[in-house]
Amino acid sequence: MSKDSRKSSGSMIIISGPSGVGKSTICKQILKQMDNVYLSISVTTRPKKKGEQDGVDYFFLTREDFSKQIKAGNFLEYAEVFGNLYGTPKDKINEMLEKGKIVLLEIDFQGAEQVKELYPNAKTIFILPPEHKELENRITGRGRDDEKDITNRLAGAGREIAESMYFDYKVVNDKLEKAVEEILKIINK
Fold first, then answer.
1. What is the pTM of this model?
2. Element (H, E) at 148
3. Which of 125, 115, 127 is nearest to 186 (CA)?
C-alpha cells in the first residue's frame, strides 16, 4: 500500500527536529491548548531513562520484540536512530484518524518521510533551534544523556537540520509560547 486510501475525518501533523529542540515540550503545550488531539506514543528499543514510564513516554521493547512487530506490519514507520529502533504503532493512529482526531506524530525526519508517503495530506513541521549553541545547552542541560549520547545527538542535529528543507513548515523555537502559537496557526489552517 503506497498511499492510504481509507476515508478519515482526522488530520495528521508531523513534528520533527533535532534532539533537544523542544519537540516534546511543544507537543505537550499543544495538547493543553487544543481539544480533539491525540499524541502518538512511539515504540523504542532504547533503555528507559530515569523518570520515564512505559506507555507514557514510550513503549519500551527488546530489539527482538521490535523485529517481530516489524514483521507483523504493526508500524506506520520505523527507523534506527543513534543505534536504537523507534517506530509508530499503526493501529492507534488509524483509529484516531477515523474518529476525526488531529494526530500529532513526534518523529525524526526519516519517519516523517515514510509517513508523508502514506499520508500525503499530513502537514510536516520542522522545529529549529535559534542557534547551535542553544541546542547544545538544551541537550546538556536536560541531565538525562551521557557524554556519548550528547556527542551523537549534536552530530546528528546538523544532518537533521539539512533535511528540514523537505518539510512544509519550519518553526524556530527561540521562545516556547511564540513557537507553540505559530504551530497552532499551522494546525488550524
1. 0.81
2. helix 147-163
3. 125
